[in-house]
Design brief:
Largest sheet: 2 strands, antiparallel
Number of domains: 2
Structural class: mainly alpha
Radius of gyration: 26 Å
Shape: flat
Number of strands: 2
Order of helices and strands: HHEHEHHHHHHHHHHHHHH
CATH class of the largest domain: Mainly Alpha
Strand order of the largest sheet: 1-2
Distance between the termini: 34 Å
Number of helices: 17
CATH topology of the largest domain: MetI-like fold
Helix content: over 70%
Strand content: under 5%
Length: 314
């Protein structure tokens, strides 16, 4: 009985303190209100439109008037002859991009952090950040020009080979081109957050380790990487959560009729089936399927990382 009364008293005190906090910081909540309203209007209310994934949507009848068909569109997608190819293309592209591309910004940040001359450091950062600000359309155009049979890359290769290589039409080259260009474009900019985390490392730790005889590699492993562990954990969880979102724009722009066996992913399939073919319900169902998998992966990655490292998103 005493324990129950103590718990009730503690709960009452917490509620009272929260009410007082809200009253004392009313102006702050007032500033927050417009952002909350915008999120509700543009992020939560439109979620109602997801119901068309379970209906035979007709623009004339509207969402409410359209016939309910349940999981018909989901079953149709899972049983379609293209499902395995599209799903595996998505997983392979995103999986290899994560496996190869995730460590590179960390390595870049550590390398930049080792530079001691401020001017050289700024110039190198400017060079590695610049590709991020190029449009995806520009990147795709550059790839088509440089890798075309008459482009500069084949111009060099034909010095050692008899015939040029059709990089943009051969499915076997698509993943390598997609992943390599993505890393080149985003790795430098992605390293900013790691550089910022490394800037908080006390230089005296490196000085003390150097005096104790630690090599550069030992200092990186035991000082820099330890400081980056929380940042790496959080960004890895977010990367796992976005593994199904390969990147519609670049995949669609790099697609040709010849490389479709490797370039057709879930996002491009949704665009073609949902928007171009006008099958909105089917497109919404495939998009929802993709989002649910992403959510499951995010929660799973968060749980695993929390148990292994103690870091978590929530």
């Amino acid at each position: 009985m005493d324990k129950m009364s103590r718990k009730i008293t503690q709960t009452t005190k917490r509620m009272g303190s929260r009410k007082n906090y809200t009253k004392n910081n009313f102006i702050l909540y007032l500033f927050l209100a417009p952002a909350v309203v915008l999120v509700l209007i543009f992020n939560y209310i439109p979620m109602y439109g997801v119901t068309i994934a379970f209906k035979d949507f007709s623009p004339i009848k509207g969402i409410m008037g359209s016939e309910w068909v349940g999981f018909t569109h989901f079953i149709s997608f899972l049983q379609s002859p293209n499902f395995q190819q599209i799903f595996m293309n998505t997983i392979k592209l995103s999986g290899f991009e994560l496996l190869i591309g995730f460590p590179i910004p960390i390595i870049l940040a550590i390398m930049v952090n080792q530079l001691r001359r401020a001017k050289v450091k700024k110039n190198i950062q400017l060079i590695i950040y610049a590709p991020y600000f190029l449009s995806t359309v520009v990147i795709a155009g550059m790839l088509f020009i440089y890798l075309s049979p008459a482009g500069p890359v084949n111009g060099i290769l034909t010095l050692f080979m008899d015939e040029p290589i059709s990089f943009m039409t051969d499915p076997s080259y698509f993943r390598s081109i997609f992943i390599a260009s993505g890393i080149w474009q985003a790795a430098g900019f992605s390293s900013i957050i790691y550089v910022a985390a490394l800037s908080n490392v006390d230089p005296q730790l490196h000085d003390a380790a150097t005096i104790d005889g630690a090599s550069l590699l030992q200092r990186i492993i035991h000082i820099d990487l330890q400081a980056l562990k929380p940042t790496i954990a959080v960004l890895f969880i977010l990367a796992i959560g976005g593994i199904m979102g390969v990147g519609f724009e670049k995949a669609y722009l790099l697609q040709t009729d010849m490389n479709l066996p490797a370039s057709e992913i879930i996002d491009t399939y949704v665009y073609k089936r949902g928007l171009q073919a006008g099958d909105w319900s089917f497109g919404a169902a495939v998009g929802l399927f993709n989002s649910v998998i992403s959510l499951v992966l995010l929660i799973t990655a968060n749980t695993v990382v929390k148990k292994l490292n103690g870091e978590t998103l929530y």
